[in-house]
Here is the input.
Amino acid sequence: MEMNRRDFLKTSITGSGGLLLALSLPGCASVETGYNADQQSWVPNAWLELTADDDIFFTLARVEMGQGTYTGLTTLIAEELDVPPNRIQPRFAPAAPEYRNPLYKLQLTGGSTSLSTSWEPLRVAGASAHRMLVSAAAKVWKVESSQCRTREGRVLHPNGQDSLAYGQLVALAAVEPVPSAPTLKTPDQWQYIGQPMQRLDAHAKVTGTAEYGIDVELPGMVYAVVTRPPRVGGRVKSFDANGVRTMPGVIEVFEIDRGVAIVADKYWRARKAQQALTVVWDDSDALTLSSADVMTHYRTAADADGGESERSQGDMAMALATADDVLNVSYEQPFLAHATLEPMNATAHYTDGHIDVWAPTQAPDLGCIAAARATDLSPDEVTVHTTFIGGGFGRRLTQDYIGEVAAVAYRVKRPVKLLWSREEDTRHDWYRPAMLHRLQASLKDGDMTGWQHQIVGPQILDWYVRDAAPAQYPWAPKFLYNTLGSVGLMAEGIATPKDMSAIEGAVDYPYGVDNLSIRHTHTDAGIPVTWWRSVGHSHNGFAVETFMDEIAHKLGQDPLAFRRQRLEREPRHLAVLERAAELGDWGRPLPAGRARGIALHRSFGTYVAQVVEASIRAGEIHVHRVACAVDCGQVVNPEIVRDQMESGILFGLTAALYGQITFENGAVQESNFHDYRLLRVNAKPEMVVEIIDSAAPPSGVGEPGLPPVIPALGNALFALTGERQRQLPLRA
Amino acid sequence: MPLTLTVNGQKRTFDIEDDTPLLWVIRDELGLKGTKFGCGAGLCGACTVHLNGAPVRSCSTPIRLVADQSITTIEGLAPNGTLHALQQAWIDHNVPQCGYCQSGQLMTASHLLATNASPTEADIVAAMSGNICRCGTYSKIIAAVQSVAGQKEEA
Here is the structure.
């Protein structure tokens, strides 16, 4: 599709002499490219706009939620355009087919894919515009373009004296042929890639001027809050709004799909009115389960069904039957909330048959579907504008809050901002699923001969496909949405990608062993779940690396040596493991009362190993130091890589030390940061991060720092106490 | 009854229910969006502003309690466009990730330095422990504060 489009552009531009042209695909807005004489601006491709005033705009299609796309992706295009990254003004992409993530065919920011999927296209886009600018200048000067150089946004004449700014060339460059395969710089020519660049969003974020979703303000805007059923699956039976409607500032009170909405002229008035609202819930379809019931449900499912085989080698049954000893354990992990510091929110305005939504979202095209579902509109009557995002971690891939604001805006027909409280954000999240893992290792003659891992729990796509499938086919009529979702599920692995969310990080077990069986018992307790930072790796990393530690101890082997000898065919795993061991002083004596644990995990193409040093004092776990080695291929910005490792480590430690969402009678019990704790600076360990030199293609860093730290800490606690913890969160 | 506050050096008068949290007055009445809502319960520090020079949680401070007093928000930290030394240090150290908590972090840190020009690392940690950063930028926050305090080692 990429090449076809470019070829089409090429003929159109040369044929029409640079007229503005619009590409259109059915059912979706699309990007206009070409030269606009009125604006004196040139849009060479979906990514760039250069103006006669020498402004350079870059359309950022992977949202900035802290992970650094605003800086990192701008660096890629700046490198090939040959301008300093801080000369380029990033702006957030609208929903359009050009901006889809090629891995998902959806406009998603997730899966630590932003850099890897942008690496080629953005450099090509920059190089293509660069080549056209140079060709235009060469024609002006009547010299060969191969003799012209560029520097910091200017084309330099071969005479060494004259030069032209890109802005002076835009009208001329626009009529140059679009190169089909422009030559990219070689690594030795890079000026910006691989260097620690200043974050381009830092100034706005330290002066309070960066606009997050919550900061969107429209003229005449009103405010909405929604009261939702406390129990999963509950619905509104009736509500008494008589006293509420007469409260100061209250404009409307009405039922929407998800609960009862109150709209008022001020946010605080809406909140106060909410306290006076009485809702009677219809709980006939509501869940009644508790957290303990979820695990019972999983155990029953696991007993009844050994699960689908996801990977098998050798003969695991034989290995178990002929073993000297079999190690047999279960690990249990709770539901987890995302707890983005910016709670869910969105702003919308419905006017003239069209709804505009401003939202901190990781998936604007799914937002279009959610808004269309909640109204009588079709997706092309919805425009989703994205903003800076106060933390995503996967939560904002699910678009329920956009559906809510659309329903409210469609009814009140004036600009409205919906804001969730922290309590609502905690209790109506779509969670990292609780999971059960059953592992068996066969041991013979002092060695591990077989590894069996049964993963028990839901798949994320079962929930996500509801809006994701229609978003892939935005021209499909709305009555087909649910069918598309079902077909998407049935066609898993054929029409839609295989759902790896439950098994990733387990099915790719890296250690050499003769007999291997990885199975998934697919079962769902009915609690809404979604992507959560590092997804399946967040629980499988713990299961695999804790069990490796258990086996090493059972065999009386050093946990590092036990892993190392099984990584002969995995040089990148081995290299990070050995480097982390060195950085973490593995094997060196420690003061009494402290111990170390080690873990290794590859996720999203990136290899990370960590050594954690911990103690227990006064009934609390203290994490003193985390040494981390990472191989993420070619590094674009080493400082962002290190920052993301620290970020993943602290996110993982938060889960390991405190993280748990519990249910009673189908309702979430936690509410705010006093009972859903997040790690604070006084619990921060010293962190040492080292990046392994690599020329492999770049892989993501937003998530891979997280999975190893949870088992590494658990393993350290075992070394400290001799007691193995098989449930999370960890206890002192 | 109208209430008067001085916000970033300017006197402002509001006719609003006196139990309205200061946060919503700052954000929605004055349009100063740099101060953020995180928890509504004084637990995360994203809403931190200065009341007569000392940090308070604006999300849980009813406006009636601060009538006729002086408030400084993140927008008031660099009143004439010249960044506060801590804001510059935050940029130099590339502190922000998602950035949502950083207004509150800066308001807390600026009060720390106003009252203790040479804090130890322990002083910094103690002062900053009320401000949550979900992205985990804590190492850089400490380094940035230390760079302004002009000392790197634990005293």
Notes: Residues 1-28 of chain A have pLDDT under 50 and may be disordered.
